[in-house]
Every structure is written in structure tokens, then in C-alpha cells.
Amino acid sequence: MKKYKTLLYYCYSTIADGEQFAADHLKFCKSLNLVGRIIVANEGLNGTVSGEAEACHVYMDTLHADPRFAGIDFKVDDVAEPSFVKMHVRYKSEIVHSGLRDPNIINPEQKTGIHLEAKDFLAMKDRDDVVVLDVRSNYEHSVGRFKNAVTLDIENFRDFPSKINELAQYKDKKIITYCTGGIKCEKASALLLHEGFTDVYQLHGGIIKYGKEAGGEDFEGKCYVFDNRLTVDVNAVNPVIISTCYNCGTTTAKMINCANPECNEHFTQCDACGEALEGCCSDACKQHPRKRIYDGTGYYVKVPQQVSPLKLSRKAIISTSATANAE
Description:
By secondary structure, the chain is α/β, with parallel strands linked by helices. It contains 9 helices and 15 strands. The protein is 27% helix and 21% strand. Strand 2 and strand 3 form a beta hairpin. It is globular, with a radius of gyration of 21 Å.
């Protein structure tokens, strides 16, 4: 039995003082020796945390004991080692950035698409009157997606609203949205309903839960995840690899971040090109003076950016001004 677990979860539930909650929650996570990344907003939580099995159980029990988070559906993976190096809890305006903050348009607590469990999704997905819609970014669906799914050319989820007109051709169909864990679908399906789509569904728990409950059937490739694993296997029924090496075109499912921190592009790269380019996407990035050491994984702990002299001088001016005003 593996010693560690990784938990993926989200919850749309109003938090009165999200900023204070984030500070307190960071202390709580550190007290359990957890590592991970959690986004807190006044609209709820979005997190992936990892640590020893007992600590993860305490974490889940504690959140479930809070009425605001009692309904959290944790996706749990057994892992050989923690999936992060550090613990970060950030307060932001949204738990998944859509750029749409008008609660009259997007409010997952009040209105979303119909949630489909894995078995129901499996039964519906190949029907002629159904469109399966991937609402994730390019680098995510490039490494793995459902067979025959409609994908969108978007760099970030905040680009999704601009693609609504492209989807108008499917207004007479049943639309089933899906994403990694379900969080993006809550807002995507709500926006589709607002824009006049009438038959809107979403895969409850996303790709990860579908893999656990339906064996991942017809999910082609791997699923991108937001931790140091980068991708995980989903399909135990009829797996295939659909992605190719960015540099040479060889079939590969391996996804990495460019070793040049100023590029940091997500891309698929075979081991041979990874060795030749030292984990970079191009020769130009390979020559970059700040290039990180490639260890074969393509995952890097975030390196703080250098502070420019201009920024330091501005801070000094602001500090001096504040001191003078105080006196």
C-alpha cells in the first residue's frame, strides 16, 4: 500500500472572508505537513493537496465537518511520493478564472448543467444528438481527450466565453461538457445556459472520476494534472496515445515544461529530444542563461524572478514617502 495520497477537489460555496480563510487554511495545511496548491475565493475552494495518508484523511474529515464544504467530492489517488514540493494557499477573485464575475450570469451555486455520473455519460456520449465538449486549454486536450470530442482553441479558460459563437451550431444538440475534475464545467455549463443553450450537461467529477468509476473508456491519451506528475493514466479499457513529440513528431505521451523559465511552455516531448535539447522546446531556449537543469521529469519548482533595479528604486521611493507622511 502506498504511503501517500493526492487529493483533487473543488467546492462552490460562499466564504464570507476569503482572504482571512486562506491565511488560516495555509496554517492548517502546514500543521498536517501537506503540500499542494489551493485557490481560495469568496465563491469557494479549488485545490490539489498531497501528503501522508493519515494526514489526508484528517484534511478531508475536517473540510467535510464544515457545513460550507460538506458536499466536497474528493478525487483520491494513491501515490509513491507527494505530488508537490511546497504548500501554497492563494486568495483570488475566482477559484477558476473565467473573467465573468456577474452572479446574474455565472453562479454555480444556483444554476449549472445537469450533472452526469460516469455510467450515464458512458451511455450518452456516442448518441447522434449529443456533442461532447472539452472546455480545457490547448495543452491539456493535446495530450488527452475523449474520442470524437469537440475541442476549442483556447490558451486559458478565460478564453472560453469568446468561443460561444463557434458553438452556436450545436444549439439543437445535447451538450455535455467535461474537464479534469469538474470545476471548469460548473462555469462553462452555466454560461452556455445563459447564452440560450437548453440541453446542457456536465461530467460530474470530470475525467479523473470517470477514470475511477468507468475505467476511462474512450478517453484517448493521458490526462493533464496540475501537479508534478503533469499527466496521469485514465483509460484502463482501451488506451491509446494520441500526442506526438513537439520537436520530431514521434508518438509520445510525455508532457513537460520547457526548461527555460522565461518560456515555461507546456509541450509533449520524447525522451530522445528531451536529452538532446535538455528539456527545452527549442535550441534558442537551450541556450538561455537561466535554463534549469533537466532531470528527465520536466517539472520544476517555481523559481522567483529577479527583481529589477527599477522596481527596487520605486519601492524605496514609496517607502520613503510613506515614512515622511507618517512623520
